[in-house]
Specification:
Helices cover 59% and strands 5% of the residues. With 301 residues, the protein is mainly alpha-helical. It has three domains: 2-99, no CATH class; 110-150, no CATH class; 193-294, Cytochrome c-like domain (Cytochrome Bc1 Complex, Chain D, domain 2, Orthogonal Bundle). The strands form two sheets. The protein has a two-stranded antiparallel sheet with strand order 1-2. A two-stranded antiparallel sheet has the order 3-4. The longest helix is centred in the N-terminal third of the chain and has 30 residues, at 38-67. The structure holds heme C. The site of heme C has 25 residues, from helix 7, helix 8, helix 9 and helix 10.
C-alpha cells in the first residue's frame, strides 16, 4: 500500500508540474512543451527528485522503525492502526452524508401509504450529491444566460466565425510564403517589380539562346505576340515551361532546373513581354489566344 501511495504522489507531482507549465506559459497554438523543449528537462529533474525524495523518506522511515524497541514498535503499530481507522471512518461518514439514506431498519418512518398491488413507496430525501449538483447547474444556467444573452458574450457561432477568419488569414499567409506549393491550378500572374525582375534574370540566363533577349524568337517562337502554340495566359505558359513543349521541338521541361516559384516568375516576365516590339520578330505561330486578352493578362495594342 505504501508503495502505491508513493507512486501516486510522484505521478501527482509530475502532473501538477505539467499543468503549471501549461497555465503559466501563454502560447495559443502549441502546448508549452512543444514550444519550449527544455521544459522536458525540468520535468525530468522534477520526476527524478520526487523519486529520490520518496526513496529516502521510505528508507529513513524503515531505519527508524527498525531502531525502535519491541514495546515501542507495538505502540507505534497501534497508533498507525487507529489513524488508518479514523481515516476510513471519515470516508464512511462522508459517503453516508452524501447519500442521506434511511437505514433499512428505519424505513417504516418514511414509507408512504401508496400501495400499488403490494408495491410500496419510500419517501427518501433527495441524495445531497445530486441536489447540490442540481443547484450548481441552476447557478451555472443564470451565469450563462447573463453572460451570453444579456451582456452579449461571444456566442458559439461568433467564436466559430472568428476562428474561421483566423484560419483563412493563416492559410493566406502560408500560401504567400510557400510559393513552392505552386501548381498550374494555383499559379497566378505576378505583377510585383521584384518578381518580374527575378523572372527577367532567369529568362536572360536560360532562355535567350532560343527566344532572344527581347523575346522576338529564333529557334523558339516569338513570345511577344498574342499567338501561342501551346496556349497563352499564365496557366498555360506556366505549364509549358514546367512540362516543356511538344516532343522534339527543343523546348525542354524546366521543372528540374527551376523551382515552381521561379517558373511563375519567368512566366509572368514572359507575359509582360507581350505587346512589346522586338527588333527582329519572328512570324506569329500558333493561334490567337483570346481568353488571355479577355482576362487582361495580355495588352492589346
Ligand atoms: C533549346 C531552345 C529553347 C530554350 C533554351 C527555351 N525554349 Fe522555350 N521554346 C522553344 C521551342 C522550340 C518552343 C516551341 C515548342 C513547341 O512548338 O512545342 C518553345 C516554346 C516556348 C513557350 C510556348 C510558346 C507558345 O507559343 O506556346 C514558352 C512560353 C517558352 N518556350 C518559354 C521559355 C522559357 C521561359 C525558357 C527559359 C526558361 C525557354 N522557353 C527556353 C525553344 C526553347
Amino acid at each position: 500500500m505504501k508503495q502505491v501511495y508513493s507512486i501516486l504522489r510522484v505521478v501527482g507531482l509530475v502532473a501538477l508540474a505539467i499543468i503549471l507549465a501549461e497555465i503559466s506559459i501563454e502560447n495559443s497554438d502549441k502546448n508549452a512543451f512543444e514550444a519550449y523543449p527544455f521544459l522536458w528537462l525540468i520535468l525530468g529533474v522534477v520526476l527524478l527528485s520526487a523519486i529520490a525524495i520518496e526513496i529516502s523518506v521510505g528508507a529513513l522511515y524503515s531505519v527508524l522503525y527498525k531502531s525502535l524497541k519491541p514495546e515501542a514498535r507495538e505502540q507505534f503499530d497501534l497508533l498507525e492502526q487507529s489513524k488508518k481507522e479514523a481515516k476510513l471512518e471519515w470516508w464512511r461518514k462522508a459517503y453516508k452524508k452524501l447519500l442521506d439514506k434511511k437505514p433499512v431498519e428505519n424505513e417504516s418512518e418514511i414509507i408512504l401509504d401508496h400501495d400499488y398491488d403490494g408495491i410500496r413507496e419510500l419517501d427518501n430525501n433527495l441524495p445531497p450529491w445530486w441536489l447540490y449538483g442540481f443547484y450548481a447547474s441552476i447557478i451555472f444556467a443564470f451565469i450563462y444566460m447573463f453572460k451570453y444573452h444579456v451582456f452579449g458574450g461571444t456566442t458559439q457561432k461568433e467564436e466559430y466565425l472568428i476562428e474561421v477568419a483566423d484560419a483563412e488569414r493563416e492559410i493566406a499567409e502560408y500560401k504567400k510564403n510557400a510559393k513552392g506549393l505552386l501548381t498550374i491550378n494555383t499559379v497566378e500572374l505576378l505583377t510585383e517589380e521584384v518578381d518580374l525582375a527575378t523572372g527577367k534574370s532567369i529568362f536572360l540566363s536560360n532562355c535567350i539562346a532560343c527566344h532572344k533577349a527581347d523575346g522576338g524568337g529564333g529557334i523558339g517562337p516569338n513570345l511577344t505576340d498574342q499567338y501561342w502554340i501551346l496556349g497563352g495566359g499564365i496557366k498555360n505558359v506556366f505549364n509549358t515551361i514546367t512540362e516543356g513543349g511538344r516532343p522534339g521541338k527543343g523546348m525542354i521541361s524546366w521543372k528540374s532546373d527551376l523551382k515552381p516559384e521561379e517558373i511563375a516568375q519567368v512566366s509572368s516576365y514572359v507575359l509582360s513581354l507581350n505587346g512589346t516590339t522586338p527588333t527582329d520578330p519572328k512570324e506569329p505561330e500558333g493561334e490567337l489566344y483570346e481568353a488571355a486578352i479577355e482576362a487582361g493578362e495580355i495588352e492589346t495594342k
